[in-house]
Amino acid sequence: MIDIHSHILFNIDDGAETLEDSVKLCRDAADNGVKLITATPHFFDYSHIRSFVSERNHKISVLREILDEEDIPISVAAGSELFLNDKVFSAGDLDALTINGSRYMLCEFPLGPFDIDRAPLWIDELISRGYTPIVAHPERYIEFHRNLYIIDELLDREVVFQVNIDSLTGKNGEEPQKMAVDMVMRKIALLIGSDAHDTEYRHTRLREKFKDLPEFIDERILLDCMDKNAKAILKNEEI
Ligand SMILES: [Fe+2]
Questions:
Q1: Per residue in 178-189, is it b (16+ CB within 10 Å) or e — as a string?
Q2: Distance from the alpha carbon of residue 41 to the mean position of ligand 1, in angstroms
Q3: What is the pLDDT of residue 158?
Q4: Ligand 1 center to residue 150 CA distance, Å?
Q5: pTM score, two decimals?
Q6: Arithmetic mean of pLDDT over the chain
Q7: How many DSSP H helices and E strands does the chain contain?
Q8: What SS3 class is residue 142?
Q9: Which CATH code for domain 2-234?
Q10: Which residues have beta carbons under 5 A from ligand 1 (an ion)?
Q11: 3-state class (DSSP) for residue 9
């Protein structure tokens, strides 16, 4: 299995705080059948792309070294979770922020209120730069729930949708669960990620979470979203 969305890197965003947390998140993921995890720290500061990338890469190297020393069987790939706003229009080269050097860019919208008319414009900007946007957890945005048409509007642009496992289990509430389940069952969302932030609450112990999934989300669906499709993303292939 592959976990395409996580905040396992220490002290770079609101995810793991220490290197020990990062190692535990990786160990738990490996114990739960994850062979590769993508580190996707939040990226907000468009004026400091290069320093963000060098800090991220350095922390991935440090983490990989410990994983190797401690024989924890998991690979770590680089990525980011790009926060979309009008600054994207004047941003410099974003290539280093994509998932594993592919054309796929994981991106997020504000969780709270924002002007929904801007959403397709930000996505179009990424597409015009040659990226294929992966929209992180569409089920968590209040504006997506208020403006359901936006899902189809973004689908027309061939974005990829990624839902959070915690939404599918209902941990994020009823409305996010309903939307996430519906998107997975209709094959509108093709990826599922942990979006892990810590070792206790939003963690990487996926098998524990699988037990809380609705029964009709069977192993075949999970393997498509957490293995086959995620592999294609990492290899820069069509999904
Ligand atoms: Fe995230």
A1: ebbbebbeeebb
A2: 7
A3: 87
A4: 20
A5: 0.97
A6: 97
A7: 10, 9
A8: helix
A9: 3.20.20.140
A10: 81, 195
A11: coil
